[in-house]
């Protein structure tokens, strides 16, 4: 077929004896944006890693613009015009922005020396395109996740490819950066470039894509023109069962006992006098735009940072000094936004990761882990959250798919039965089915008397699960909206309100 730029025929791939791709046939047309969706662990990244030359296939064939294609590595794929923006950022923290952009090969002058002027100029052009507030010499390690993600995207764009793969490119982006990216994708498409776009945010997939391909358990189950899918259809294809509800029902009482309270908290000009209180059984949402101070506030609550002034009370006790260890003793839990850096031991097996917080309860007084108990508890978490892992005792966390890593972080904290639960973007990169499980667990914890602070950038998620939504802007709380008054526009307005 002439308009296919890429075909994959009967592609298979296994990891240590577990088959992950089962003879896939996949097609990408010239100048289209193709959405690739599926549950966590369905095989999306694996499939694209084969196209990008990062992984080899066990059997099968690929045809690129009519020619046999079998890349020997990522450079080979780049040379054939394929650029890949990875799900997990591939940047080096200890190098500068410019060095990261050119890490695959520095341009040289006529005399064979590294062309520093050209590197600087190209880098500047890239940064200007998205208005990124960095210079070519900025160290990447010092930058926030959203900017790092934009640099990774710029690196992909620099390759002047005719096929571009975006694997969940928006997980750390603010609304504005996301709009810039979508505009860029539309420009690329207008130039005849073909794009594969992987995301769990189905709304974005519908907005951006011409066709959508659904992957389930390593097989392609459906490809349609996007307009021929309703959202319910698409979800059914992805999860393989009827899912009429995206949020669980939250019939429950809010208690009187206050479990978490702050008075006039202040820190580094980023948290500017926050007073809040969470009662037993209450799920309180926290909405705000990038830079509103939500993550900073969460860091203070859990003692990751020390406040400059103000008070924090947990379970009615005032805490003169808050530390993560002290919080764990108070039965508090905190799921950070940056799961890959703070949440997991990547080179340890899934089981060890799950037991990380719980360990103190599972060791007896001779410091021996009760492994039968550990097994039982872990199996339960893996089942409840539907974590896709072949061998939890041996499989390293870094071999799990992105969304399944997130589930392990969640499982690890839930197993400690938190009474105060702070979650920063817990469903990022998590598929619809597992989101429902995560929401259900949050609701169950609240029903059992825990207080939950749910930080999220998705208003729908907050409206669907919370009793009350706090809105933050400029380090202050600009709104405290009760359930009866939930309204998207109103919440967004409060988030944009300049704190006085
Ligand atoms: N190096 C590896 N060793 C063992 N198993 C692996 C390895 N890499 C991937 N897998 C397994 O392959 C399956 C598919 O993973 P993949 O990363 O392709 O999923 P995905 O569709 O991209 O999911 P997500 O939406 O969570 O990113 C998963 O079950 C994963 O655990
Ligand atoms: Mg993936």
Notes on the structure:
The chain is of the alpha/beta class. The chain has two domains: 4-239, Rossmann fold (3-Layer(aba) Sandwich); 258-496, Rossmann fold, CATH 3.40.50.300. The chain contains 18 helices and 20 strands. It has helices spanning 44-51, 74-79, 97-101, 116-129, 145-157, 175-190, 202-208, 231-239, 294-301, 324-329, 339-343, 350-355, 359-362, 371-384, 402-414, 432-447, 459-465, 488-496; strands at 4-15, 18-29, 33-37, 59-64, 67-68, 82-85, 163-167, 194-198, 211-216, 219-225, 258-267, 271-279, 283-288, 309-314, 317-318, 332-335, 420-424, 451-455, 468-473, 476-482. The strands form four sheets. The protein has a six-stranded mixed β-sheet with strand order 6-7-8-3-9-10, sandwiched between helices. The protein has a six-stranded mixed β-sheet with strand order 16-17-18-13-19-20, sandwiched between helices. β9 and β10 (219-225) form a beta hairpin. The protein starts with a strand and ends with a helix.
